[in-house]
Amino acid sequence: MNQYETVLILNPVLTEEMVREAVMKFEKVLNENGAELVHQAHWGLRKLAYPIRKKATGFYHLYEFKANGLAVDKLELELRRDERILRFLTVSLDKYAVAYNESRRKPRAPKASATEEVNL
Q: 51 φ, ψ to 5°?
């Protein structure tokens, strides 16, 4: 099984409940097709780089999952059929991208202040 990352941009006119429902729908599609969800993150409402369907903003959501190619095909088919989705992008992650994503999710240790360093 390969590891993939999919980023969705949902229509900004949706309510929070409708966005949550759409996110759960695609999570269910992944689970039904044997994918293992590694991480997901809701990035919220963000400005788009350029207008898509006359919309300047969109709700971003990220899925990181392990799956075979068939599960990815079925997910993308469902994404194309759903009118709430403005854009999506699925990429296959290599071992370096997987390691980077894991390190990015770990909480950072607090940095020592400048006064503490001088007193040592």
A: -65, 140
Of the candidates 68, 60, 78, which has an alpha carbon nearest to the alpha carbon of residue 36?
A: 68
Residue 101: C-alpha distances to residues 36, 75, 96, 105, 115 (Å)? 16, 21, 9, 6, 33
Instruction: State both tokens at 99.
Output: 């390691």
Range of the domain at 65: 2-119
pTM of the predicted model, to two decimals? 0.82
Paired tokens of 86: 């403005």
pLDDT range class, residue 20, cuts 50, 70, 90: very high
Cα–Cα distance measured from residue 77 to residue 60, given in angstroms and rounded to the nearest whole number = 19
The CATH number linked to 88 is 3.30.70.60
CA 49, chain centre distance (Å): 18
| Total number of domains in the chain | 1
